[in-house]
């Protein structure tokens, strides 16, 4: 690829991701309503679900669950799993079969304390035997692409050796691609990713590497283009929550959006998919905490919606702010989220 071009389309087990741009799995955000909104704009190769508990899937209504359901207009959707043990994993994959996932992703990266207390996410990455057992079961029952998302593990003098060991383990067990977020599990998102590791890891392993970490759009990609040498794809997280049109704008920089219409559209989508009022309001508040970054005085929108006691109040307050044609931030900040 040239210095500023995207990698070529990525094909895994016959499934083509074109362009190789991926919307990251994000807790409280990449539910069916949000994916539907991003799909309205397009421009990506695949959307990821939220991290889904493999055990909880067994009790979900796959056709109605706002975490599991998918719509044809979403295009390719990869389902990410939180798996703690190999027990009943095959049943969980069978439950997802009617949804025809375009891939299954295992989370080996989440550093949230609650997830680590359950021995999932980044904790799973540390436990080679359990990681191998889970991946082996998944590979046996997943016929399509199987990917794993990882960080760098626990900070220690042996971290680089451990990373190499995990790369070999995952390749040996038949994983098709890795998403690499080059931060340690104890580092928050204010710490600059170790961009140089993308090319280093891509050269070390035969697995395609999808780069994740502070990729906010073409400018961020170009600023570190040399360090992305060898990566097979790019994953965008927080900026996709701030600007759900970021993938479309990648291809069409002049794309104009009506921010008020976008916020109201997602509000409606959430209301359709989340039938419990409390759940719907919580998702509106989570989205607004990101979306408010589009505005110079976005804290006003954030505060108004966060303190709303119900959906009607949240909508009224948000529309009062949006109707005033608030000034847009030149470059939305991702600090603190």
Strand sequence of the main sheet, in spatial order? 3-4-5-6-7-8-9-10
State the name of the first-level CATH class of the largest domain.
Alpha Beta
Query: Major beta sheet, specifics?
Result: 8 strands, parallel, barrel
Could you estimate the helical fraction of the residues in percent? 40-55%
Number of domains: 2
Instruction: Determine the oligomeric state from the structure.
Output: single chain
Question: What are the secondary-structure elements, in order, as H or E?
Answer: EEEHEHEHEHHHEHEHEHEHHHHHH
Shape: globular
Shape-level CATH architecture of the largest domain: Alpha-Beta Barrel
Unreliable stretches, pLDDT < 50, 5 or more residues? none
**Contiguous helical run count:** 15
CATH domain topology of the largest domain: TIM Barrel
Q: What proportion strand? A: 5-15%
Q: How many whole angstroms does the radius of gyration measure?
A: 19 Å
Number of strands: 10
The structural class is alpha/beta
Task: Draw up the topology in text.
Elements: E1 10-12, E2 15-17, E3 21-23, H1 32-41, E4 46-53, H2 54-57, E5 77-82, H3 89-96, E6 104-108, H4 113-117, H5 122-126, H6 128-141, E7 146-150, H7 159-172, E8 177-180, H8 196-204, E9 209-212, H9 218-223, E10 233-236, H10 238-242, H11 246-251, H12 259-273, H13 277-291, H14 298-306, H15 311-323
Parallel strand pairs: 3-4, 3-10, 4-5, 5-6, 6-7, 7-8, 8-9, 9-10
Antiparallel strand pairs: 1-2
């Amino acid at each position: 690829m040239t210095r500023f071009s995207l990698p070529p389309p990525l094909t895994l087990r016959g499934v083509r991701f074109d362009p190789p741009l991926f919307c990251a799995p994000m807790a409280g955000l990449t539910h069916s309503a949000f994916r539907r909104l991003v799909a309205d704009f397009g421009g990506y190769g695949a959307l990821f679900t939220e991290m889904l508990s493999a055990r909880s899937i067994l009790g979900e209504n796959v056709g109605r669950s706002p975490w599991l359901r998918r719509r044809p207009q979403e295009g390719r959707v990869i389902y990410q799993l939180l798996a703690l043990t190999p027990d009943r994993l095959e049943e969980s994959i069978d439950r997802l079969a009617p949804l025809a996932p375009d891939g299954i992703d295992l989370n080996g990266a989440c550093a949230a304390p609650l997830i680590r207390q359950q021995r999932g996410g980044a904790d799973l990455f540390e436990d080679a035997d359990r990681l191998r057992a889970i991946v082996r079961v998944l590979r046996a029952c997943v016929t399509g692409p199987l990917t794993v998302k990882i960080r760098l593990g626990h900070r220690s003098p042996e971290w680089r050796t451990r990373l190499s060991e995990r790369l070999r383990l995952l390749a040996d067990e038949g994983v098709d691609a890795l998403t690499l977020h080059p931060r340690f599990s104890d580092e928050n998102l204010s710490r600059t990713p170790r961009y140089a590791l993308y090319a280093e890891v891509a050269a070390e392993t035969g697995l395609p590497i999808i780069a994740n970490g502070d990729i906010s759009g073409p400018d961020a990609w170009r600023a570190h283009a040399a360090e992305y040498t060898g990566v097979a794809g790019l994953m965008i997280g927080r900026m996709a929550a701030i600007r759900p049109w970021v993938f479309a704008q990648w291809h069409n920089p002049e794309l104009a959006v009506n921010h008020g219409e976008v916020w109201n559209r997602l509000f409606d989508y959430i209301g359709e998919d989340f039938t419990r009022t409390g759940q719907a309001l919580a998702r509106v508040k989570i989205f607004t905490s990101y979306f408010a970054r589009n505005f110079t005085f976005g804290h006003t929108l954030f505060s108004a919606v966060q303190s709303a006691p119900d959906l009607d109040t949240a909508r009224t307050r948000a529309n009062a702010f949006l109707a005033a044609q608030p000034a847009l931030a030149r470059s939305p900040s991702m600090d603190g989220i």
